[in-house]
């Protein structure tokens, strides 16, 4: 296991993604490098009020600590309280045009250790995690199919059962229980993954990270110049409220960052800039807004 090669890949991935997105928008990303007093640091690459992106962030972090926070040990109680090291690239993009979907992607590597103690044989104390998911405001079947097909293509070379497994994991994870609705049309999600050994697990994580631009850029460029009006912007702001609710109430990455004393600005860069809430509102039956609920915010096999 060599964490240095993982870090080299992740920093390169951040650069490649930012370069591709900046070329689409035409505005450079702000570079914000930071250090964490408890150990480690990172670089947040931010765009606000761009031509295409109303707000977006592509962050790299490499942080460490001596006491694993509860959110990270939720599925592995045996590692609670251990020292730890985490690195990853995480992004959320909020386009200005309501017909262009919001997107999230992250890939990460985690190591849990105990001072002076070796992990037990057969029980790796490292794992990979990540995935990507799409959150449209006005749904298009061709967009959802393309996104899922790209995710499937990234995973199939490693094991044929990974896409359906990670697709269901994504559907289950990005679900607002208090609203009884999914956040979007899903994608893939995985965590605590080391089943292929280090080399192949790392290669799989790289394949997911490398697939992001292929999954999202064609959708973005197809929708970013679609004419829209105040009605579409209003609905976009309303639906963005669901994104905020999920990130603050359920998202393990947000909870881990805050519980571990992370940098708040970087942790909350995923939040959209303009959001609305309404009391007990639902779209008019038969409207394009209602079609989002009936045709897209449901469990579906897209490929």
> In CATH, what is the homologous superfamily?
Coproporphyrinogen III oxidase, aerobic
CATH hierarchy: architecture: 3-Layer(aba) Sandwich
Report on the biggest sheet. Answer: 7 strands, antiparallel
On the 0-100 scale, what is the average pLDDT? Answer: 91
Number of strands: 9
Poorly predicted runs: none
Q: What is the CATH third-level topology name?
A: oxygen-dependent coproporphyrinogen oxidase
Describe the protein.
There is one protein chain. The protein is of the alpha+beta class. The chain has one domain (3-296): oxygen-dependent coproporphyrinogen oxidase (3-Layer(aba) Sandwich), CATH 3.40.1500. The chain has 8 helices and 9 strands. The protein has helices at 3-25, 141-155, 162-173, 197-223, 230-249, 252-259, 264-267, 288-296; strands spanning 30-35, 40-48, 53-65, 83-95, 102-113, 126-135, 175-176, 181-182, 186-193. Strands 1-2-3-4-5-6-9 form a 7-stranded antiparallel sheet. A two-stranded antiparallel ribbon has the order 7-8. A hairpin with a 4-residue loop joins strand 7 and strand 8 (181-182). The chain is globular. The two termini are 35 Å apart.
């Amino acid at each position: 296991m060599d964490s240095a090669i993982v870090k080299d890949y992740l920093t390169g991935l951040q650069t490649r993604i930012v370069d591709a997105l900046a070329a689409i928008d035409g505005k450079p990303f702000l570079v914000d490098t930071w250090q964490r007093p408890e150990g480690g640091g990172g670089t947040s690459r931010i765009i606000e009020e761009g031509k295409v992106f109303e707000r977006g962030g592509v962050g790299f972090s490499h942080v460490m600590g001596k006491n694993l926070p509860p959110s990270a040990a939720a599925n592995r109680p045996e590692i609670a309280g251990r020292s730890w090291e985490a690195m990853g690239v995480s992004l959320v993009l909020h386009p200005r045009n309501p017909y262009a979907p919001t997107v999230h992607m992250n890939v990460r590597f985690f190591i849990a250790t105990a001072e002076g103690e070796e992990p037990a044989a057969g029980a790796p104390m490292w794992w990979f995690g990540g995935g990507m998911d799409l959150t449209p405001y006005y749904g298009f079947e061709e967009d959802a199919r393309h996104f899922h097909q790209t995710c499937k293509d990234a995973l199939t070379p490693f094991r044929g059962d990974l896409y359906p497994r990670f697709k269901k994991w994504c559907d289950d994870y990005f679900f607002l229980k208090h609203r009884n609705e999914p956040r979007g049309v899903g994608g893939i999600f995985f965590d605590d993954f080391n089943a292929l050994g280090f080399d192949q697990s790392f290669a799989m994580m790289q394949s997911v990270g490398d697939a992001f631009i292929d999954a999202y850029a064609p959708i973005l460029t197809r929708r970013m110049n679609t004419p829209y009006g105040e009605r579409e912007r209003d609905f976009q702001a309303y639906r963005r409220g669901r994104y905020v609710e999920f990130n603050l109430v359920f998202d393990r990455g947000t909870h881990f960052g805050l519980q571990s004393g992370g940098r708040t600005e970087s942790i909350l860069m995923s939040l959209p800039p303009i959001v609305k809430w309404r009391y007990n509102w639902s779209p008019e039956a038969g409207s394009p807004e209602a079609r989002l609920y009936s045709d897209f915010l449901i469990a579906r096999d897209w490929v």
